[in-house]
Amino acid sequence: MAKTENRTAIEDYLKVIFSLGEWQDETVSNAAVAARLGVSTSSVSEMARKLADNGLVAHKRYGGMRLTDEGLEQALQMVRRHRLVETFLVTSLGYAWDEVHDDAEVLEHAVSTLMVERMDTQLGHPWRDPHGDPIPTADGVLHQPTAEPLATTPVGERRFVARIDDDDPALLRWLAETGIAVDAEVVVRERKPFGGATRLDVRAPGAAVDGHLVAELGDQAVAALLVSVERASPKPLNAKGCHYSDCRHISAPRVSEKNR
Amino acid sequence: MAKTENRTAIEDYLKVIFSLGEWQDETVSNAAVAARLGVSTSSVSEMARKLADNGLVAHKRYGGMRLTDEGLEQALQMVRRHRLVETFLVTSLGYAWDEVHDDAEVLEHAVSTLMVERMDTQLGHPWRDPHGDPIPTADGVLHQPTAEPLATTPVGERRFVARIDDDDPALLRWLAETGIAVDAEVVVRERKPFGGATRLDVRAPGAAVDGHLVAELGDQAVAALLVSVERASPKPLNAKGCHYSDCRHISAPRVSEKNR
DNA sequence: GATAAAAGTTGGGTATGCCGAACTCTGCGT
DNA sequence: ACGCAGAGTTCGGCATACCCAACTTTTATC
């Protein structure tokens, strides 16, 4: 025997390396991975060796590590699992959007490929999760729309909320109260200096043209929002399946994979 | 730290001890647990000590072990999780009944209490899973209908399929092909001696009065079937919520529980 | 270019959960 | 009532995945 739950740890490392590595290219530091996972750097060193042995990362001593094609492919599958699970919990099981993250974090390691594909089918192949994060396709292609932080959006310009960081449930509840959701239209009206509040007009996705609210957001809330000049298209814009015209594609060069 | 995934192992032991102990009372042997879990008896000894330390089983050296009230309560919760997950996979995600067991085995350790209750609600509080096994209620009460093995049913008497062992997916597919399902009406017509085939009339749950098929089942298939004289009532028969008039109730004496 | 701070690695140690081998207890059969 | 087979336990080991503390390498600064 001797095959305990080793998968969970590896999967968590892959996810973190993927997200820290600017989605694929960059070398990520040991320390960054340790901080994100809440483990010590010595644990990361050990795991780096193990991942390298398994061909999932390239790792040179005292340098950082970078996902290999195989590691990237598996990381994209994990992202797909996580985001599909979140979408499923909200759409099919009536979770509020601030309740899904922790459950998804556990379930992503437990759902089979069959279940992932059944959820995907039942949800009608969603392209993004409840927080606006794009869902990689079954063959591992991620459409990454270009979006800017709300923090740097010029005053007076119209933007659409593209993605909302889902780490803090309390923040999500607060944002929901202020009317901010994915696809909401926002215009920054005023920025108070030195970390002061940001005042903005908010119009909910389906609201009337003149139906806007005024919200005052603190630093933490502003930092959680990514916005786009363009409104997300409900239908794909091109053959590649993008919902924004300005969009990167990330995918692992076909690795004939059979494991998992 | 030191908080790895210890829950899974404990939960698996509790489930096995529960099912081996004739649903609660009997002391189960170390060897039986080892055989069922596919581990060595030394592993069971160690775990028995740990479970006893945690107050989940009563264990006397060189004697077997028996679930405590707390252990029984947790075991019933695991049974609930497993069977609700199976029901959910079939009803809401389109699994075939032979596909659910393995996925449920993993998911039962990963679903949160919130998710269990959401599934339960969405399914309309089902009282049994796709294989006919009763689902304990949220407060840990299991209605265990009396059922007899098909192997000992007298020739010529009418019975209703109450439960079907779900361990072997191939067997389940075969049974489905022969028209056998939960609530199917069966009459044993002939038993060939020395482990020969059993021939029986089968009428599917919704079929016309004269719409019966003839099936020939081998030993293994016959052993997987539990039947009841009485047809399961679609609605509860009494205040206790039983769907059969002859039914045992199993529950842990209220233990004010907060963990998990 | 020396050197100290930062970043990464190694080594020794912990906890879980499993194993086989050796030892110990129980109880059955004579 | 004895003794032995079988069931149960203990012990030393293995693998994973962590930790801290000590050591090595890189880097950034003077």
Automatic annotation (TrEMBL), chains A, B:
SUPFAM superfamilies, sorted: C-terminal domain of transcriptional repressors, Iron-dependent repressor protein, dimerization domain, Winged helix' DNA-binding domain
HTH dtxR-type domain residues: 1-68
InterPro entries: DtxR_MntR_Metal-Reg (IPR050536), Fe-transptr_FeoA-like (IPR007167), Fe_dep_repressor (IPR001367), Fe_dep_repressor_sf (IPR036421), HTH_DTXR (IPR022687), Iron_dep_repressor (IPR022689), Transcriptional_repressor_C (IPR008988), WH-like_DNA-bd_sf (IPR036388)
Subcellular location: Cytoplasm
Pfam families: Fe_dep_repr_C (PF02742), Fe_dep_repress (PF01325), FeoA (PF04023)
UniProt keyword Manganese, yes or no: yes
UniProt keyword annotations, A-Z: Activator, Cytoplasm, DNA-binding, Manganese, Repressor, Transcription, Transcription regulation
Subunit structure: Homodimer.
Family the UniProt entry places it in: Belongs to the DtxR/MntR family.
Protein name: Manganese transport regulator
